[in-house]
């Protein structure tokens, strides 16, 4: 390959002094010759070598390669030219110390995409040629200066370049070694152009064919000038490209040389990941716990539709209309309904609605209770005498208040109502309760006592049934089971006075023996199966919803019910009644034909949504007053806890996120340091033909390794921390295995860590890639 320099100028301006490093240099080189460039320090020798090698670019003039101008060369052309045609040898060898000798020698070929086999063959050849066959497997640190220079020569030779540029190759070597290296270079000059810079005239004299003397950027003397003729051979350049794999390898071997620092860096930057990992593991676990408990507990609680419902939307609107939390200004007073009252919604439970509810799919809710909160007229024989009793859980004084003035004032006769399976079975009890004593009820007239998990039965319930018990008194189940209670029809129970009002009759003995009287019997004492369903039915008497229906059917045409229907007064007290309490009174007397409460028991937590969606559909496009609102205790609890968990999680992740950002900045600093440290390496890679992109890639690869490393480390540490965390939590909360790191979260965290570190390191990496190769190689 022939080179022609035509009026090349290269000026450096620093501050207001301009150095003419090359000042109108015109030279031509033969295809094969050994040229020495002699000159004092600072005369521009290195600059010329760099310009010839494409490491540095001339300001003006032209460099002709095989007669072809390089004025239009793009960066990638120069990269390819350096890689394909030029071999560089430096005074201080510039071997990449963290790579093996083999990898150093093959780097140029790696950049131009030569196959592994060919690379190895050519590198071995080159190493043999420089006399290093025996030392091939050593590490650079184990070689002497002369040997390192031989590696550098092998590296320059490996790609078989047409031009070898050597910048004071023996400058750092002793005389003996210098001669050996010079012999080698002389030999190489036989089939290529070698341009060697030296300040040693003896060496120049002894070895080279031609000596060019430099002074102040100008050619002072040329021993064998050459005038190139027409050249026609055009040349083709092979583009270079470093694969990400090569970049990774380069970074990996580099990282291996600073294990301690790398580990510390990874650890520091993994702290954010550890934080987020722990937070996620905890919230994940808590949510799972909550979901499980909810699914178990809350699914068993019914969706309740009562005559007076709570419209949560209205409640929210009301509290909103109060405005902000500030105190009001001025002295104007506003009349305002209480939030609780505004939220009250009178549900219009009519036959249509009952039919609608009856159409709920059995796969969504197996058990539905239609409760007619009607008054039960009950008497029981105690010590041979009948006396009135109730199923209430209220204590005596409250109960007396109730019966003496107006029995309907507090609707409900007490006791718990359990639903019938929609297939007519009483499976609800069997599913949630086991028998402490006696049997499950089998008829609607069978009633049961519900005890809590400690076998307690409400004392008022027992007293109201006519048992003479003291607090904490122990009872035998056999004393309770078999107890019979007579349920009296209204017509037997109430007597009409001449004034038109009705009063309860006192002739209990006679009532009890009436044809219409039903006999209720306590068949068993039941206790909840699991702690979670405790409270599903109130502790005390429980009966079937069909019993309430039967009582209503029996009483709806009773004299007292009929009288109440057509009267504006309370037929029990003779007092006028407020319109609001009229429905309660009607219900109490059995005159209402629709249930006052509907309780829907979803089959599972998931099925509950189907039920509520179905109920919501009923309200669609209905006027506000026709809407029927339901009360979903389970739902409101779960959405509350869910929201709370989310909020806490977000806050904690926010905190951990800050440390992620911190580690990102740290990685940027570390990468920048690495760029500074590896300046020489950047120069060498560029001299070998690496593109800017490739350099960026090397550092990106390094941060990728750091990112993956710190991500994996963080995830592992977070995972390990879940064990002590769980032990601690179990001690404090009784919950086991709360902290659970979701594998998907772990993967996501590694990815996040990698992306953030690469982002953090990318800017310094770009800075590194922009480094001027000529300056990089001059740096110490
Ligand atoms: P030599 O190799 O003959 O010792 P150089 O080619 O290295 O000389 O330098 C020639 C002149 O150019 C010197 O005066 C040097 O200070 C100057 N020089 C080289 N590179 C730069 C640079 N990047 N910025 C400013 N001045 C430079
Ligand atoms: Mg120099």
Determine the CATH topology of the largest domain: Rossmann fold
Distance between the termini: 32 Å
Strand content: 15-25%
Question: What class would the helix/strand composition place it in?
Answer: alpha+beta
Q: What's the CATH class of the largest domain, please?
A: Alpha Beta
The largest pleated sheet is described as: 8 strands, mixed
Oligomer classification: single chain
Mean pLDDT: 86
In total, the number of domains comes to 3
- Second-tier CATH architecture of the largest domain: 3-Layer(aba) Sandwich
Question: What radius of gyration results from the CA coordinates?
Answer: 48 Å
Distinct ligands, ions and cofactors found in the model? adenosine-5'-diphosphate, magnesium ion
Percent range for helical residues? 40-55%
The number of helical segments is 27
In the predicted model, the low-confidence regions spanning at least 5 consecutive residues are 402-412
| Gross geometry | rod-shaped
CATH superfamily of the largest domain: P-loop containing nucleotide triphosphate hydrolases
Number of strands: 26
């Amino acid at each position: 390959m022939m080179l022609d320099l035509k009026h090349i100028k290269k000026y450096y301006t620093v501050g207001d002094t301009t150095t003419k490093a090359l000042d109108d240099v015109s030279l031509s080189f033969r295809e094969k010759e050994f040229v020495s460039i002699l000159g004092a320090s600072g005369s521009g020798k290195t600059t010329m070598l760099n310009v010839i090698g494409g490491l540095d670019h001339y300001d003006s003039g032209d460099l002709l390669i095989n007669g072809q101008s390089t004025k239009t060369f793009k960066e990638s052309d120069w990269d390819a030219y350096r890689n394909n045609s030029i071999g560089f040898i430096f005074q201080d060898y510039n071997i990449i110390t963290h790579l093996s000798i083999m990898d150093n020698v093959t780097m140029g070929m790696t950049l131009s995409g030569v196959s592994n086999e060919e690379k190895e063959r050519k590198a071995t050849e080159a190493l043999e040629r420089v006399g290093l066959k025996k030392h091939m497997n050593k590490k650079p640190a184990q070689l002497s200066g002369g040997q390192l220079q031989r590696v550098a020569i092998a590296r320059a030779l490996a790609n078989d370049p047409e031009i070898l540029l050597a910048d004071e190759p023996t400058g750092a070597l002793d005389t003996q070694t210098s001669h050996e290296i010079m012999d080698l270079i002389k030999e190489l000059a036989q089939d290529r152009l070698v341009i060697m810079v030296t300040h040693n005239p003896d060496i120049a004299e002894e070895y080279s064919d031609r000596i060019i003397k430099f002074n102040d950027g100008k050619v002072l003397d040329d021993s064998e000038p050459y005038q190139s003729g027409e050249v026609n051979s055009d040349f083709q350049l092979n583009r270079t490209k470093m694969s990400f794999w090569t970049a990774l390898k380069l970074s990996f071997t580099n990282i291996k040389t600073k294990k301690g620092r790398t580990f510390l860096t990874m650890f520091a930057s993994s702290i954010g990941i550890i934080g987020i990992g722990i937070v996620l593991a905890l919230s994940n676990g808590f949510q799972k716990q909550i979901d499980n408990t909810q699914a178990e507990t809350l699914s068993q609680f019914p969706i309740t539709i009562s005559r007076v419902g709570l419209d949560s939307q209205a409640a929210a609107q009301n509290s909103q209309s109060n405005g902000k939390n500030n105190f009001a200004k001025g002295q104007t007073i506003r009349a305002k309904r209480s939030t609780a009252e505004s939220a009250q919604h009178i549900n219009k439970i009519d036959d249509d609605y009952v039919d609608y509810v009856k159409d709920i799919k059995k796969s969504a809710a197996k058990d539905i209770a239609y409760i007619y909160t009607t008054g039960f007229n009950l008497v029981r024989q105690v010590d041979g005498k009948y006396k009135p009793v109730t199923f209430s859980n209220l204590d005596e004084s409250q109960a007396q208040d109730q019966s003496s003035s107006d029995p309907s004032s507090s609707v409900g006769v007490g006791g718990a109502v359990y639903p019938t399976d929609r297939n007519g079975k009483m499976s609800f009890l069997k599913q949630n309760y086991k028998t402490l004593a006696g049997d499950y009820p089998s008829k609607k007239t069978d009633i049961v006592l519900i005890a809590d998990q400690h076998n307690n039965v409400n004392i008022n319930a027992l007293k109201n049934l006519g048992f003479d018990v003291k607090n904490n008194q122990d009872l035998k189940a056999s004393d309770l089971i078999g107890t019979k209670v007579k349920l009296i029809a209204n017509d037997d129970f109430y007597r009409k006075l001449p004034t038109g009002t009705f009063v309860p009759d006192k002739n209990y003995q006679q009532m009890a023996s009436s044809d219409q009287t039903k006999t209720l019997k306590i068949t068993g004492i039941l206790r909840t199966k699991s702690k979670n369903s405790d409270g599903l039915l109130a502790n005390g008497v429980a009966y079937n919803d069909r019993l309430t229906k039967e009582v209503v059917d029996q009483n709806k045409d009773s004299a007292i019910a009929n009288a109440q229907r057509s009267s504006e007064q309370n037929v029990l007290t003779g007092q006028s009644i407020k319109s609001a309490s009229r429905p309660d009174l009607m219900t109490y007397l059995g005159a209402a034909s629709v249930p006052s409460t509907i309780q829907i028991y979803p089959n599972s937590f998931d099925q509950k949504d189907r039920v509520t969606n179905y109920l919501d559909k009923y309200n669609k496009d209905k006027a506000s007053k026709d809407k029927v609102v339901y009360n979903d205790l389970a739902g409101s609890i779960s959405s509350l806890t869910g929201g709370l968990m989310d909020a806490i999680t977000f806050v904690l992740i926010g905190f951990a996120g800050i440390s992620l950002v911190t580690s990102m900045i740290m990685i940027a600093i570390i990468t920048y340091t690495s760029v500074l440290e590896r300046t020489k390496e950047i120069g060498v890679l560029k001299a070998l033909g690496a593109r800017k992109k490739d350099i960026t890639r090397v550092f990106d690869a390094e941060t990728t390794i750091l990112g993956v490393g710190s991500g994996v480390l963080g995830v592992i540490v977070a995972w390990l921390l879940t064990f002590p965390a769980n032990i601690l939590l179990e001690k404090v909360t009784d919950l086991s295995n709360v902290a659970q790191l979701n594998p998907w979260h772990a993967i996501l965290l590694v990815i996040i860590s990698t992306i953030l570190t690469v982002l953090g390191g990318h800017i310094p990496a770009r800075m590194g890639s922009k480094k001027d190769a000529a300056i990089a190689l001059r740096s110490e």
